[in-house]
Amino acid sequence: MSVDAIILGTAILVALATAPLGVFLVLRRLGLMADAISHAVLPGIVLAFWLTGGSYSTLPNLLGAAFVGLLTVTLVELLAKTGRVRGDTAIGLVFPALFSFGVLAVSLYYQNVHLDLDAVLYGEIAYTPFNDFIVGDRNVGPASLWILGALALVNFAFVGLLYKELKVSTFDASLAASLGFAPALLHYLLMALVSMTTVGAFEAVGAILVIAFLIVPAATAYLLTRRLSRMLLLTVLVGAVACVVGYAAAIFVDASISGAIATVLGLQFALAALLSPHGGVLTTLVRRRAGWQAKSRPEKRAGLH
Amino acid sequence: MIDVLTDYTLRNVTLGAALLGVVGGVLGSFAVLRRQSLIGDALAHAALPGIVLAFLATGAKAALPLLLGAGVAGWLGSLAVIAILRVTRLKEDAALGVVLSGFFGFGIALLTFVQHSGRPNQAGLDAFLFGQAATIVASDVTTFAVLGGLALGIVALLYKEFKLLSFDSDFAASLGLPTGVLGALLTSLTVLAVMIGLQTVGVVLMAAMLVAPAAAARQWTDSLSKMLLLAGAFGGASGFFGAAISATRDGLPTGPLVILVATGIALASLLFAPLRGVVPSLRREKRARARVRSEVTS
């Protein structure tokens, strides 16, 4: 496999893995929770690093992140439940504190090891082809493709198997509860998957740019359609297009690939906000003008102006 | 602790952090009351491309142009959030998420472009991600003081208007106040706080400097003026003690410690503040229950 194909494949797999989660994050208004989790991943990685005695392998990382991700969600909900602060304030209290612990631990104990803060934050997808996955003593190809492929499968299976339950609990939580769908369990499952996907993707795109993949394609798709199934499809499409265009742009100007992809995602969102058939700014303007003309025409014909 | 007042570097770092805390606390109070706690997070991330563009334009790492670049980009980011909320059906969380990641991604792309271009003097631009309090010099503190004084001065001048806007914006509008302009102004002042915070705590941790002191102050009082004063005091204390603790040992980063002190104050207030703290109100509840029980049984 060529280096280009591996990098692009990794990026598209990130888009695929995050799409089913992003759709429900946007619909459930949990975008900021995703922001919080993507930051809180850092102490999770540090914790895994410490527990495994300094090894740098994928499974402990995923578990550590899932743990700290769930801890973040639990702490936020605990704080909000006291009724003393609102949900957004609780998020703003929890994730900087956890992130601070992470930075502190790294600078106190892991100053000289591979836990490079920059890599955690904005990743370096260009290195993914050089990190191979070894099973026994056979080299089965780039680890990033395996990890993200597996995460994409798990996430699509989650949404596919629990589609009805997720749909009902997203649009009508009390109906879902009365039908016995356990919305709280669904919520925590979703958050655990968000945490694990964030870590799986962090080597490729960095923890903070994961939030670009989690939120922006789904938000763009939300502007373009009013149907859940179509939104899911569009989210995948928007993410994949951004990967191809962003990758090409990054090579062209020699800049960070994940940064370029996030930039393209932002531009796509702006385009959708302007041109969407459902309430895009320009579309509405054009339609309104056409409406005025249609209204004024009969009057003109009758010579009333 | 005495060193804090005599050592040149330390004095600047603690003064800078304390100033950030005071300004962040006051403006954060409005953000928290207006349910926009995480606007600071989005603005701080959105400031990154401005820093890099300012560096590209001036070719130097002078503090003032970089801060101005950051301010302009952060301000544009805040306008983008307001525009998304106005023209789409998306809610705050998605609007903040889109602006945060779009601007920040663009900033990272620019930053790496500059780093790869081999331009002289570019190293250390990424210090803004986590802040680098140790680089604060006396002239920076003066800049911070001017920016902070400007922000606090405007808050003092428009106190009544901002108060109305935060508690009942419909009523404010019915009085003929330009609520849209006032809201945008308040957000722009938050951009000033972010500009002070970038060098001290960095992009990633800026959110807490606005949220934690305000959330702490809210537990002690129901009056806005007292809340602003308390939030400023809590923020200032977090900045001062966080910076002082980080000076006690090598390799202790200032930003995270300032944040942890602020979070500690917030947690203590949530638990023990006499007015709204969890423990005092549980105790009040218990006492009331005992009184009712004794009245019923006697």
TrEMBL record, chain A:
Residue intervals passing through the bilayer: 6-27, 39-56, 62-80, 92-110, 143-163, 175-198, 204-224, 231-253, 259-286
One GO CC annotation, please?
A: ATP-binding cassette (ABC) transporter complex
Give the UniProt record's GO annotations in the biological process aspect: response to zinc ion; transmembrane transport
Describe its membrane topology: Multi-pass membrane protein
Instruction: Kindly indicate whether the keyword Membrane belongs to this entry.
Output: yes
What's the protein here called?
Answer: Manganese/zinc/iron transport system permease protein
Q: Where in the cell is it found?
A: Cell membrane
**What is stated as this protein's family in its record?**
Belongs to the ABC-3 integral membrane protein family.
Task: Report the source organism.
Answer: Deinococcus yavapaiensis KR-236
Keywords noted in UniProt:
Cell membrane, Membrane, Transmembrane, Transmembrane helix, Transport
Family matches, as SUPFAM superfamilies: ABC transporter involved in vitamin B12 uptake, BtuC
Q: Does the keyword Ribonucleoprotein apply?
A: no
UniProtKB/TrEMBL annotation, chain B:
GO CC annotations, alphabetized? ATP-binding cassette (ABC) transporter complex
Q: Which Pfam families does the record match to this protein?
A: ABC-3
Q: Its topology with respect to the membrane?
A: Multi-pass membrane protein
Q: Which InterPro entries match?
A: ABC_BtuC-like, ABC_TroCD
Q: Does the keyword Ubl conjugation apply?
A: no
> Which CDD domains would you find in this protein's record?
TM_ABC_iron-siderophores_like
Similarity comment: Belongs to the ABC-3 integral membrane protein family.
Q: What is this protein called?
A: Manganese/zinc/iron transport system permease protein
Recall the taxonomic lineage recorded for the source organism. Bacteria, Thermotogati, Deinococcota, Deinococci, Deinococcales
